[in-house]
Amino acid sequence: MKAKSVVSGAWDVATRPLVRRWNWWRQPRWWTGTDLPWERPHSVGKGPMAVCNICHWAGAEFLGTEHVESAMCPRCGSVARDRFLLFCFLDCSPHDASMRVLETSPRLGREYRRMMRSLFHYTSSDFDLSAHRGDIRIDLQDIALPDSSVDVLLTPHVLEHVPDTDRALREIHRVLAPDGAMYLQIPLQQGVTARPTEPEFHGDNTPVHFRFGWDLIASLEAAGFDVEVLVMEEFAKVLRGENSCPEPDVDGFDVPSMIEHAPTTKLRPLVDIYMSKIHGFRPEHQFVTFRCVKR
Fold first, then answer.
1. Quick one: which H or E segment has residue 260?
2. CATH assignment, 2-294
């Protein structure tokens, strides 16, 4: 059974670029325009319950396991980190239809993008168009957009694949409008930034140049951003020493190192334990989003 699981996982990774390129996995049409993603769910009553904050699907539980890359919504296909990124953006930014929103390498397909275009002036981008089908092609190190042309940048799990971090941050700062915001997600699994000790690749066979830690904040501030770290309430308590450290797991997260170097003055607890459970934002230490506002 274990060998079968390994083979299945390897096949999924190998074929994912083709699936995205040719749209072999066609998502159902779920966006109707009636349920807005910033509307909070009402009480879900007794028993286990899961609610997707993107498409408003509700059921007993998400598909897969409790993990930032899993807990998939059976309706829209979002995994937990997709939902947390949109939650952070909609909770911290005004809901303005004229807002110019750029998202780099969004995982979700046409129905998600259709929804976003109905709510904002939304554009999706990618660097490798064989992996995703963005509206435009962008290299974060040399963004072919005018100064101050973006109000909000959503960039999930892209920066670790960029060779020159500082150059990319300067370019992002340039294209953001005054007081514009970047919502940045990276796989933050340790306290201090380091390069991979051996070649590392993520789902679309893109190389990882950095395994970031909390010291990324210093680079963000040096590039001209004011930074908040958006986390779960329970994880904020862990980082501040108010709650005990979670038991060691095999998920690759070095929580003791994350605690040791935690930027406690930058933390902004955004999601309580109730919301983290129903939206699938668990375990809490796997969910970190940087809100970076242009100075």
1. helix 255-260
2. 3.40.50
